[in-house]
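Why does residue order matter? Because the sequence determines the fold. Keep that principle in mind as you read this record.
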Amino acid sequence: MLILGIRKISALFPIKRLAFALCASSFSAAVFSQVGEIPPSKVTVQGGDTSLAVPPSIGSQLSSQEQPSKASELFAPATKVNTPKIYTKPAASGPAEMDLRQLWNELKINNPQLSSLRESYLAAKATVPQIAAPANPQIGLVWSGMPVNSPFALGGANAPSTQYPNGISSNNAISIAQPFQFPGKKSLAADIANTNADALLAQSEATYLQLGAQLSSLYYNALASQKQLQVLKESVIRLELIKNVAKARYANNAAAYVEYLNAQVAQSAAEADQFNLERQLQVSINNINTLVGRHSREKLVLRADVNRALTKVPTLVELEDYAESSHPALKSSALQLEAARKGVDLAKKAYLPDFQVIGSSYTPRGPFSANNGALFYQFELDLIIPLYFFTKEKYGVEQAQRNQASAEAGDISNRQQIVLAVNTAYAAYEQAKRQTQFLRERQVPQGDAAYKVGLIQYSNNGQGFNDLLTAQTQLRSLEVQLALAEANLMQAEAVLLVTAGKEPY
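Structure:
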């Protein structure tokens, strides 16, 4: 926001004009030495406003740049007192410096969502040997030697008779029954469970890539905030230089006081933007710490190489081939399809009968009788056959076939969506790359040149203060756009590689 003012130019005596010209020439040479330019051989300066008899004291005003920032007070470090109990890891005592690879490793190890998926996979894997294990045997004890007319003799069933002097039931027996499924049923069921567990593992890997893409976006947003902070600090320094030029010109009655005020207002606005960016950066750091399983207020320093995104990205065809062969989501759908096909085979095996083998050992000695006799054994083979016109088996096969058709359609859809996502992400990456190159190679150098030319002209002849301030504002805007474009480029690269199923490093 500019404060408009009126500057009156009055005629000066030749001696006064000569003295002012020498003073302005020495100050212009100092300004040119700061910006790296050679001052022109001829300097022409017009007279300033003499209506203010007592100029205000400028040197006594404290620049807002010298005031200490209160941003550190808003984000107190984590201690044992204020650390929530939901965190199992204590807050770190010192800062940690990490790049993207180290953050992904922390994500893989400490993220609670990935830990939950990992435990679910191990739980599913533990069901495989349970399914493959044989059925539990059944052990039975027959107690049939009851006393005569005992209430446990089932209404005198053991009473002696002419035909059965010792009663009709005077034997004890021990039996062991072992059920068996038709050969191949259990092994196939265990294989299906193992395939489903592997599909669950592939799904957890896909979730890991999705969380990694989110981590990469937060990471590059934080780097963009750091770069913007650096740009704003440089802008504050440039505005300080402009403010000093306006201060010296005003002291020599060669510029209006409003020009100094405008430069001061622009500098204060840049410092206010710094405070907002500091808060955004702290929020990004907190989100990154939480995502990788650290305490949100742990110290974290980020490292990155922006130029890496311009050289190491594979071609679109290579990324499509890699995605179709190695993407975890496609691996999961392929494993689910394989499990569905095996499920059809298992459903067809339901038409086959199961078995049960029973072995028994008998003795004629009752528990309350003294008679003794020889042991004898009994072997029994039971056949469990599907009845009721194969109703359950027929619809079981139909259900398995429907599941297979659904899995096949889902696998095709997943492949189409992955390839389309790779194409879209590659187009976004190319656009971000061109935009970054355009800003870096053309717009930012042009804005820097415009700012330097405006500063030189204003230092020499006192004209174009608004143009100088506009050039500085445009240069700062272009540098911020470049920082955001570089962050978008790195994010686009990370999203592209993650979409293809690769880790972005």
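The chain is about 60% helix and 10% strand.
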